[in-house]
Write a structure and sequence with these properties.
seven-stranded mixed β-sheet; alpha/beta
Length: 464
């Protein structure tokens, strides 16, 4: 088998997150081909070899999978990389994701540690569920007209205009089309990453699923100046189900292709919006972390609350706490909850949210978990971990485990990161009691996992 060779074959299975396994009989070996669905017959080219394993690039789907029982719901499928599985029935997606997660957990959890895998819980909303979307400016092909949307699958540069994206509410796509038309009319340029030239970078939209409040964030460089009030007027004239409560102009001259703010100007309204979860209200700012699927987040937090059990007269640490949603969900049943979050504006929002929700037993600390744990005076009885996708920093994890709490709840949005962290957690005397998947990312390769861990001195059956 050589680089550049083209083969055909059937995807026998897809491993997390999107690694299709195709057997090539004439070579007597498997090839990993991403972005496919189990059962598809595909044509692919050998792209590279990694650790002795062949990796291919999908060229064409020759025959649909038996699992593809419905038609695409948007015009960009399958070119756009945002939705991998929209032609699969949702039940089939859930079954596949649960199987992927259990396979990884079975390999990571020590063989003498029997644990309960509780399967997967589906999202209450399959479509239109995302309350946050980051769109990019660019062109569909080199030299083409200005586009605004999502990256073409497998491309760093090509941008497909997501004018009918079904992951978001129609309000968001109407705003996207309005912004794109406005800047096409005035001939504004987009930021070219290689040349570091251009004006338009991103459109960050956030919308409360319960409140309908919308925050529009236009991200540009300072390499040009335009009067943005005509854009504001056009946006405010749109017929939307929800309501735009703020339009912000975020200036970002960083060389890297990330959404950040060197300076933020309010063009209209305010720089925050509100969302409601489980009867509580949360103030959300442009860059503060909040679960992207509001109704799915309610399901996630109810499950966390059930996993954590009785916490009366206990102090709970909520590490990587974002805007403090988990802390506030647990606070009514706890003695005290201490949240730690590195993003300052998220911490400020968390404090304001707790006050607004009448919770006086929440404390939020701004800073890196690794450093804050050296300074915080409180000692936890239970720890809840909800780290970023890449998991917990290897220097921070030992400090967390040094508290020797009886129970840890680990919420992971990338099960392979959880599996990696489990090696150290189990090595420090914890056993996995039970795990469950909660799907917050329908049609995509991602899902959440909740894992309950206890000290070995406790019987796992006590928590089941």
């Amino acid at each position: 088998m050589k680089k550049g060779q083209i083969f055909e074959g059937i995807i026998e299975k897809v491993e997390f997150p999107n690694k299709g396994k195709v057997y090539v009989p004439q070579e007597e070996q498997y090839v990993v081909v991403k972005n496919g669905i189990p059962g598809q017959k595909i044509r692919f080219v050998i792209q590279k070899f990694k650790h002795g394993d062949a990796q291919g690039r999908l060229l064409e789907v020759l025959e649909k999978s038996p699992l593809e029982t419905r038609e695409p719901v948007c015009s960009l499928f399958p070119a756009c990389g945002g939705c991998m599985y929209q032609t699969m029935a949702y039940e089939a997606q859930l079954e596949m994701k649960a199987g992927q997660m259990k396979e990884i957990l079975d390999a990571a959890i020590l063989p003498y540690n029997p644990y309960l895998f509780e399967g997967i819980k589906g999202s209450p909303k399959e479509f239109g569920y995302r309350n946050k979307m980051e769109f990019s400016f660019g062109d569909k092909y080199k030299g083409g007209p200005l586009s605004l949307g999502l990256h073409k699958k497998g491309s760093t540069y090509d941008i497909l205009t997501a004018s009918d994206c079904r992951l978001v509410h129609e309000d968001m796509t109407r705003i996207l089309v309005c912004v794109l038309e406005c800047f096409r009319d005035i001939g504004a340029s987009y930021y070219k990453k290689m040349q570091h030239e251009g004006y338009l970078r991103h459109l960050l939209l956030r919308r409360g699923d319960s409140t309908g409040e919308i925050l529009v964030n236009l991200v540009t460089t300072t390499q040009a100046e335009y009067d943005l009030q005509p854009l504001v007027k056009r946006l405010l004239k749109l017929k939307l189900e929800g309501k735009i409560v703020g339009i912000l102009h975020i200036l970002n001259d960083a060389l890297s292709d990330i959404v950040q703010s060197d300076e933020t100007k309010i063009l209209y309204g305010q720089d925050y919006f509100y969302e409601k979860l489980l009867g509580m209200e949360f103030k959300i700012t442009p860059f503060s972390f909040f679960q992207p699927n509001s109704r799915g987040a309610e399901l996630l937090y109810r499950t966390v609350r059930a996993y954590i059990g009785d916490i009366q007269n206990m102090t709970v640490f909520d590490l990587f706490s974002g805007t403090g949603t988990i802390a506030q969900v647990l606070a009514p049943a706890a003695k005290q909850v201490v949240g730690v979050e590195i993003v300052q504006e998220a911490v400020e929002a968390a404090r304001e949210n707790a006050a607004k929700n009448g919770l006086n037993n929440c404390k939020f600390i701004a800073g890196d978990v690794f450093r804050v744990l050296d300074e915080v005076e409180e000692k936890p009885d239970i720890i809840v971990l909800d780290p970023p996708r890449d998991g917990i920093h290897p220097k921070a994890l030992p400090k967390i485990l040094d508290y020797h709490v009886e129970k840890i709840i680990y919420i992971s949005c990338k099960v392979t990161s959880l599996a990696r962290d489990l090696e150290m957690i189990q090595g420090r005397g914890y056993e996995v009691v039970k795990c469950v998947a909660v799907d917050q990312f329908c049609e995509t390769v991602h899902t959440e996992c909740i894992c309950l861990l206890s000290k070995k001195t406790e019987k796992a059956s006590d928590f089941l």
